[in-house]
Amino acid sequence: MNNTIKILSIALVLLCTYSASAQLTVTYSDLNQEGALELAKQANIEAQKMNKKISVAVLNASGVTLLLLKGDNVGPHNTEASRRKAYTSLSTKTASFQLMKNAEESKDAKNLNTLPELLLLGGGAPIWKDGNLVGSIGISGGGGSENDNNIAVKAVQNLGFKISQ
Q: How far apart are CA 62 and CA 78, in angstroms?
């Protein structure tokens, strides 16, 4: 009987420890490398429909760059622009095209362009799955903010993701 009590006590301690630590962690979904590659493929398909070449960036939910591609014959500045658009949309949980429009209309939001990593140009889109922010995509070089935005949004939607919660 003494061993049974010891075993039950140890099991109870382990259960309580696991339960307490579970309250201190976050469970989330995240884009993976395969998802990033598929998003880039979809973005390029959409760009080809417009006869455009683009640079593409895909970030995971933590803001880590999973993919960064420079489009053929696309200016080198577009590579970094695509990453910053993806970061902007991830950080603000808003498509960068919408954020750009919001900044045009609000004195307070205009100051967002002073933050070094944010880029208030269309082409960045947050990626949502089942109500969770799982990453973002940034497009640059598609012939302007509206084109970049449309390519990003369609790439996300083509894979069954959403751009808003």
A: 22
**pTM of the entire structure?**
0.84
Query: What confidence category does residue 23 fall into, taking pLDDT thresholds of 50, 70 and 90?
Result: low
Handedness of CA 13, 15, 20, 24 (dihedral sign): positive
Q: How far apart are CA 84 and CA 118, in angstroms?
A: 6
Pick the more confident residue, 17 or 109: 109
Query: Distances from the Cα of 154 to the Cαs of 58, 128, 158, in angstroms?
Result: 14, 13, 6
CA end-to-end span of the chain = 55
Among 149, 163, 131, 161, residue whose Cα is nearest residue 35: 161
Q: Which two tokens stand for residue 117?
A: 């990593």
The contacts of residue 60 (CB under 8 Å, 6+ apart) are: 30, 31, 32, 66, 134, 135
CA atoms within 13 A on the CB side of 47: 25
Token pair in block for residue 9: 């006590």
Report strand pairing: 55-60 vs 132-140.
antiparallel
Of 141, 74, 60, nearest in space to 152 by CA: 141
In contact, 70 and 43? CB cutoff 8 Å = no
